[in-house]
């Protein structure tokens, strides 16, 4: 029963090949941007630390 | 009197240290609210909203396309506003907001274009058409890419910031063209389904998740922008005592 419901949901009324790629692309863009922003903050803090050590 | 208070508050917030501290306090709350809005919006978009009687389940792409398209215009408008702040009042923070908003705007515009194009295939029978709305939105993507490229090429000098602000203001001419293109020209793209003044043409079961997704996308933009500006602010202010103290913590 649950499998049928999930299958029906996954099929998106025959439009799965259009709907899911767009949702995956959106997820990729949103998650990728969030991850890169966090990474940039950590890298910048490390860079400033090194810069401070060099200039001290 | 009231206006004076607003200007004083804005002027104080433009101070790098205060901005860093205040935005740091707001960010966790903004992230939670954005995640909740995405959770409700996605549940409504994919599960709760019934299939459209004409478009079937393909209409669910609209829950990404409309917020992305709306945000692509809002981001550029924010950049133009910052360009004015930078040119007239020389606010350093405005330059940072302008530069950091551009990559986010480019990604969101790309999402608006791709989602619209994929939706267009089953509905219009084609992925792309040189229609006024689609073409002007594509031009917006090129404007974002141009601003990013120019920023990388010019560096961080004061003249570079001024040049970037002027380019952004010239490009702002595309925003009303995108918005009114469906009224000015005979386009394949339909007119606006949502308006601040008119009664919505969408059923509530479909409308509320759409509004939630628009709010979630706005939340994502504000959260990402604040985080990016905070990062750049640290680097720009690295010689100041508060940054030294913060990094050594």
Could you explain the architecture of this structure?
The complex is a heterodimer of chains A (56) and B (249). Chain A is mostly helical and 56 residues long. Chain A is built from 2 helices and no strands. The termini of chain A are far apart. Chain B is mainly alpha-helical and 249 residues long. The termini of chain B are far apart. Chain B has one domain: Four Helix Bundle (Hemerythrin (Met), subunit A) (Up-down Bundle), CATH 1.20.120. In chain B, helix 3 crosses helix 6, helix 3 packs parallel to helix 8 and helix 4 packs antiparallel against helix 5. Helices cover 78% and strands 0% of the residues of chain B. Chain B contains 9 helices and no strands. Chains A and B meet through helix 2 of A and helix 3, helix 4, helix 8 and helix 9 of B.
First-to-last CA distance of chain B: 41 Å
Largest sheet of chain B: none
Largest sheet of chain A: none
Globally, the shape of chain B reads: globular
Structural category of chain B is mainly alpha
Total beta strands of chain A: 0
The figure for the number of domains of chain B is: 1
In the CATH hierarchy, the third-tier topology of chain B is known as Four Helix Bundle (Hemerythrin (Met), subunit A)
The most extensive contact between chains is:
A-B, 27 and 36 residues
**Secondary-structure element order of chain A, N to C:** HH
Low-confidence runs of chain B = none
Poorly predicted residue ranges of chain A: none
Q: What is the number of helices of chain A?
A: 2
User: Would you tell me the structural class of the helices and strands of chain A?
Assistant: mainly alpha
Helix content range of the residues of chain B, please? over 70%
Give me the Rg of chain B, rounded: 20 Å
